[in-house]
Structures are given as structure tokens and as C-alpha cells.
């Protein structure tokens, strides 16, 4: 019996999780990577007025229907100018981006003319050619972007063009990390889980705060846990969940309604747990209890907590995969191996894997997730890769 699978545990953690109900309003300059909480209705049309799409001459199509035709040039209109009306029987020199003069319905590019004054129009087209019309892309009053859209560079440009200066976005998830262990409190072992998990949480878009290290006595731990639950949308603990005499997280939470502790068929990170606690205001705050061993804590965070952060934020998440560069033996449980990417985007385990080496983890581009197939996984097989922002694999955001 190898315990629940990684997928079982991911499902258990995500079951019933709804996006947080609040939203933030942020200026566009701070909106990169956020997710729209509401549709954005355009207050400006795109383009905002009819304008020339080519440098050339603004004319009446009907007056140049049978080229060659010679017309006097009544003036010049450039981007930023107010357009003068086009006199009958004349042309106006016009630059790309300039407003189309009232009366004109065609822009003849310089290349189709003599370019002189008077201008000889040598070739023509139907009315409307080389004119970009007001609202042809987005019309003022219509929805420009829908709630749920992830804001990247193109979306920020569109929002600016439709006149939005600030937008309602789904909230940043407040993440609390409570590391546990007397050895950390006593300063015998540096608390390396807190900075790692805070960084991984921030890379996934959360506001992350450390509450640990908490001591190995249930009352002391409970006090820090309660403070974390009151202040956060999700709480992650590390350590204190295996079979030892001082496994404080398990001791404090195993009898709580709805908490689950048990082995998950993965290596490292076999002991896992999860549940939810009620805050004083009635919010149900998910709690994920990760093992203390640093690689196991980090792997558990990327496997389980990152998707949870996305579910709470209401932002899309899907696993990132990369093909294996070389065959990798698989067993009866999921194995997480520090790996490096080749130039062609294939991933291979780093040699010298020693189970719990932080040095090896720090040399890796990502953790590769070897599925429990019980056989050699052939080169080329796509496998899930776990990484955070700052790694060449990027974030699964
Ligand atoms: N009899 C058994 N013993 C253990 C089992 C088991 O099934 N039966 N599982 C082993 C496995 S696998 C793991 S993983 C660990 C997980 O134990 P805990 O989650 O209770 O973690 P701790 O005992 O608190 O710590 C384990 C190890 O990691 C160091 N640690 C903890 N927190 C931090 C931190 N924030 N920064 C740096 N290092 C940390 C801690 O000092 C320990 O050395 O249990 C096995 N035992
Ligand atoms: O599952 Mo634990 O992280 O191997 O030592």
C-alpha cells in the first residue's frame, strides 16, 4: 500500500475551493499578471477617430475613379492636426495616423501618385481603402475584455486604448507560512523553508507572510496558527507531520473536523495533510500541512499549494510539461527529481541525486515529476515540471 496518489491529494486540496469574493482596484501600471474581476466596458473607441493608414493623399474616390487624374493639393494634414475639410476637386497630403478630412473617403498612397503639386493620381481603389475607421476594432460602450482575463502586455495596451486608467482585479491571495520545529526556534537549524515558500508564493502572485518558526508544543503552535488563520486566505505549515513523538502539527490538527493526514505516494514528501479552519469572521481558511524536509516542503508547495493559490485567486492554472531528454526509471510512487533543461527544452535529472540535497535543488532548473508507471519512462515522454518564476521553465501562471 503506497497511499494516496499525487493526483488524489491535489484533488483533495482543491475540492470545494472557490475564488475569493473580494476584488482590488489597481492602476494599469500595477495590473500586470492580475486577473480581471469584472468586464471592462470601453469608454473610448479604438481607433478613436477615422484616420489615414498610409502616407499619401486624401481624396474623394468618385473624383479619381478613372486614373490618371490630376488634382491641386489644398494642404497637408499630419497626425495630431485637426483635419480641414477637403475642397471639391482637390487632394490633401495626409500622413499615417492623421484624421481623415471631412469629405475624403480614400487615401491614395504616395506610391500610387506623382507625389507633386498638383498631384497626378496614377492608380485608385474603392472608397474606404487605407482609412481606419473609428470603432472598427472596439466600439465605445461595448465590452473590451471579460472578467477572468489574465492581464499581460497586450491586454494592458488594449485597456489603455479603451480609456481604462484603473481596473478591478481579483485579489492577491494572502498566504501565511508557519514553519515548525524546536530546532528552528532554538536556532540549531536555520529555517530555510520559510524564505523558499514565501518566494514561491510571491512568484505565484500571493502576498506571503511568515508566522513561524513555531515551537513543538501544541499550545504555542496553535497560537501562531490562529494568528495566521485570522490574517490569511490560506495557511501552509511545514514539519511536524510524520510519526515522531513531537509531531506538533499532526497532534494539534488530526482531530479537527475534515482534516486528513496520511502518506501520499511520492518521494520526497510522503507525509502530507490538509484541511480547513474557521476564522473568527466565519471564513473557511484552507490549511496545507507540508513535510519539514526542505525539498519535500518545496515540492509539496509547487505540486499542491500553487494550484490552490490560483484557485483562490480565480486565475487559470495548468501543469507545465517538458519532454524527457533521457529515459528515467519509475517506481510505484511519483518521484520528484531536480532536473535541468537542454537547449531544446527537454529535461533531464541532474546526476548525483541524493534525495534531500538542497545544493542539488539550487542547481536545478525545475523539479521533474516522474509518474509511477513502474517501468522505464522513455525519452521524449512529456512529464510535469515544477518551477517558480526565475527559473528557465518559468511559472505555471
Ligand atoms: N517513523 C517514521 N519517520 C519518518 C517518516 C515516517 O513515515 N515514519 N517519514 C519521513 C519522511 S519521508 C519525512 S519527509 C519526514 C517529515 O517529517 P516532518 O514533516 O514531521 O518534518 P520534521 O520532522 O519536522 O523535519 C524533518 C527534517 O527537516 C528539517 N526541517 C524541518 N523544518 C525545516 C525548516 N523550516 N527549515 C530547514 N529544515 C527544516 C528538520 O530539522 C528535520 O531534519 O519524516 C521522516 N520520518
Ligand atoms: O518523503 Mo520524505 O521527504 O522522503 O523524507
From TrEMBL:
Known function: Catalyzes the insertion of molybdate into adenylated molybdopterin with the concomitant release of AMP.
The MoaB/Mog domain, residue ranges: 176-311
Cofactor: Mg(2+)
Lineage: Bacteria, Bacillati, Actinomycetota, Actinomycetes, Propionibacteriales
Name assigned to this protein: Molybdopterin molybdenumtransferase
Keywords: Magnesium, Metal-binding, Molybdenum, Molybdenum cofactor biosynthesis, Transferase
Organism, as annotated: Nocardioides humi
Pathway terms, separated by semicolons: Cofactor biosynthesis; molybdopterin biosynthesis
Family membership: Belongs to the MoeA family.
Catalyzed reactions: adenylyl-molybdopterin + molybdate = Mo-molybdopterin + AMP + H(+)
EC number(s) from the headed UniProt entry: 2.10.1.1
